[in-house]
Amino acid sequence: MAWICLFIAGILEVIWAFAMKKSLGFTLITPTIITIVTMIASFGLLSVAMKTLPLGTAYTIWTGIGAIGAFILGIAVLGESVTLTRIIAALLIISGIITMKLAGPH
Length: 106
What we know:
Low-confidence stretches: none
Strand content: under 5%
C-alpha cells in the first residue's frame, strides 16, 4: 500500500507543479486552487508512504516521479526544448529511481 500511495503522491506532484506554472505566479485562481489542493494531497500521501518506507527511498522516488513527469509534461504540453543534455539528465534521474526502488524494502 505504501508504494501505491507514493506513486499517487508523485503523480500529484506533477499536477501541482504544472498547475503552479499555469497559475502565473498565483495570479490565476483556478490553477492556484489546483496547486494548493494537489500539493496538500501529495504531501499527505507521501507522509502515509513514509510510515513504512525509509525516508531516503520515499523522498527520492517522490521527487524523481515529479521531476520526470514535469520534464515530460513540459515537453509535451508546454513546448519546452528537447536537448541531448536534458534527455541524459532525465535518464540519470530514472536510473536513480529504479536503483532506489531495487535497494529499498519490497
